[in-house]
Structure formats: C-alpha cells, structure tokens
Design a protein that fits this description.
The protein is an alpha+beta fold and 276 residues long. 19% of the residues lie in helices and 38% in strands. It contains six helices and 18 strands.
C-alpha cells in the first residue's frame, strides 16, 4: 500500500485538523497521503486515480460524494464518522488508528454496494445522467401539491401513483429517506432496489422490490414544479411527461470493512436505539 486519499468536510471544524493528523500518522509508517475537501470535485476526480483507499471524514453525505469518484476507479472507501448517523462509516474519531492500521496490514474485507444509474428522457432525448449510491427521488417542489406517476418495469405498465414523491433506493439507501417513508430495510448484500411512494393519496401505497436487472421508467404528470434529486444533491427541474429511467449502474461502490459481516444489523439497531 503506497497511496491513500484523505477527504475532509469543509463545514466541520474538526475535520481538517483530523485529516492533517492522519496524514502525519501515515507518513510515519511510510504511506504517502493526499488530502482534499470532499466538496472539491475537480481535485477528487484527479487525485483518486491510483489511490489504494479513500479515508473520508464526515457523515454519510460525505461518503456519498466520495462514492461518485471512487466507484469509477474501484477504490475502496473507509469512513470515519463525524456526522450524526454514520450508517456507512467504519470508525469513530477515537478509534481510527487501531482500525486504519488493520487496513495497512491487509486485515480487512471489501464490501461491494449496488449503485443506480438515473437518466431524464424528455421528448425522446436523454438530458441528464446520474450515478447514485443511496437513492433517486422524483417529487414535488415547494408547492404542497401531489404529482402523478406512471411506473413501468421492463417496458410493462405496473401501476400508477398519486403522491408527494417516489423514492427509488438501493440497499444502501433503504436506511435513509426510504426507511423514513416506511420502506423495507435491505441488507447491503442484496442485489435489489426498491420503489417507495411518499404520502400516497388514494392510490397504490406499497413499496415494490425489484431485482438488479430491472429497468424502471417513471413518467411524471403535473401542472406545477417537480424535481429529480439524486443522492440528496440539488434537484433537477422536471417537465410534464418527462420520463426518469433507472437501472443498475455499471459501477459499484466498494467499502473497506474491518468489522465482521454482521456489522450492518448491529449498527442499524444501535443507531435506532435498540442495541442491547
């Protein structure tokens, strides 16, 4: 192992000093490191190539940002949680040295997580393409008015929704907005994704789980503003009759893990306040 990237969060005061501390700690062990803000897209895209790992300091949002670049070049991510939840992180600020040393010694396993590709088709043409680790949300804007959706899978019409939004979530995203909207929890090993309606009104109100090769098409019908929001970033304004196409991404996101494979359930219950 010769090169590790360290991403710090520009809005968390403790993040950059910790990045410097880790860089110095690695240098003493003969490991070259580079640092960047997790909001500096240009530097991340350039520096991630050829790295052995990305150590990400922040919350789950920081890890989602890092995933966009790490997934393109198969670089595993190791998260140190400085956020509120930390479902995706592997270490805390008080135990990172003992866990990072295990990375350096090769005492870890790699977890592959499904990602989704989302495209907007308007008048027969593709206008935007996104790759997401958590979810794609198609829903209303600031106006408290529902949107009508048609859901097609593999070219067949499945059902219609009238709702505030539809969430298309990966297993990773099943613990985020999808869970808050009543969707099922999917362990990260499952090769599935789920469609969950938000506040459905007099319409189909159940989540549907799809296999990884399914091709989802969501046609939007509204007479006001609606948006597509990928992984919680700024939304893209949609037009009436736009179609949001969602499929499995060609890339997956890799996480370096030092905990046992059952960590997901322990961590989930802990975060929900149900640990023993």
């Amino acid at each position: 192992m010769t090169r590790i990237g360290i991403l710090h969060h520009p809005k968390l005061a403790e993040s950059q000093p910790l990045a410097v501390e880790i860089e110095v700690w690695l240098a003493k062990r003969g490991v070259t490191a580079w640092t960047s803000s997790s909001y500096d897209d240009a530097r991340m895209a350039q520096m991630v190539v050829g790295s052995d790992f990305l150590v990400v300091l922040g919350g789950d949002g920081s890890l989602l940002r890092a995933a966009r670049y790490a997934s393109l070049v198969d670089v595993p991510i190791f998260g140190i949680n400085l956020g509120r939840v930390g479902f995706l992180s592997e270490a805390q600020p008080d135990d990172w040295p003992e866990k990072v040393i295990r990375l350096l010694e090769g005492d870890f396993w790699t977890e592959n997580r499904l990602m989704l590709s989302a495209r907007i088709r308007r008048n027969g043409r593709i206008h935007h393409t996104f790759s997401v680790l958590n979810d794609v949300v198609v829903g209303r804007g600031r106006q408290a008015r529902v949107v009508r959706f048609q859901l097609h899978v593999d070219g067949d019409h499945v059902t219609n929704y009238t709702a505030d939004a539809l969430i298309v979530a990966t297993p990773t995203g099943s613990t985020a907005y999808s869970m808050a909207a009543g969707g099922p929890l999917l362990p990260p090993q499952l090769p599935n994704f789920v469609v969950v309606p938000v506040a459905p009104h007099l319409t189909f109100d159940r989540a549907i789980i799809f296999h990884e090769q399914a091709e989802i098409a969501i046609t939007v019908h509204m007479d006001h503003h609606a948006y597509l929001t990928p992984d919680g970033t700024d939304g893209i304004l949609l037009e009436d009759q736009d179609v949001v196409l969602v499929t499995k991404s060609e890339n997956s996101c890799k996480f370096a893990r030092v905990e046992s494979s059952g960590y997901f359930y322990r961590r989930l219950m802990g975060r929900l306040g149900h640990s023993r």
